[in-house]
Amino acid sequence: MTLEMFNERVMDMKNNPKKWAYKGARPAIIDFYATWCGPCKITAPILDSLAFEYKEKLEVYKVDVDKQRELAAMFGIESIPSLLFIPMKGQPLMQVGAMGRADMEKIIKEKLLD
Asked: What is the model's pLDDT at position 114?
């Protein structure tokens, strides 16, 4: 995901930088990662599997922090992987560090699909 795509699909940070206003049609997860990151490589197949399983219910985006430094900086990403869970209403939830499938599914079911 690029900054331009983020502004189109998630939130228009250029015109509305202060207030969170999600633009998506479904809840989403944004995975902030890097290709060289070991824990990111562990998280990636879990997210891919969840993206397939919940393909009609949520969106999963990936942000390579090395290529999208401005987007990563907007969220204060200092440690990866960092996962941003975005519900349809309310504020997003940031989780830092590798997570197991059960923990991700719990957040999806309790925070995104409730």
From this structure: 74
What residue spans define the domains of the chain?
3-9+26-112
Q: Which class in CATH covers the domain with range 3-9+26-112?
A: alpha beta
Give the residue numbers annotated as catalytic, written as ranges: 37, 40
Following DSSP, what letter does each residue of 23-75 receive, concatenated?
--SS-EEEEEE-TT-HHHHHHHHHHHHHHHHTTTT-EEEEEETTT-HHHHHHT
pTM: 0.93
| Residues contacting 100, CB < 8 A, separation 6+ | 46
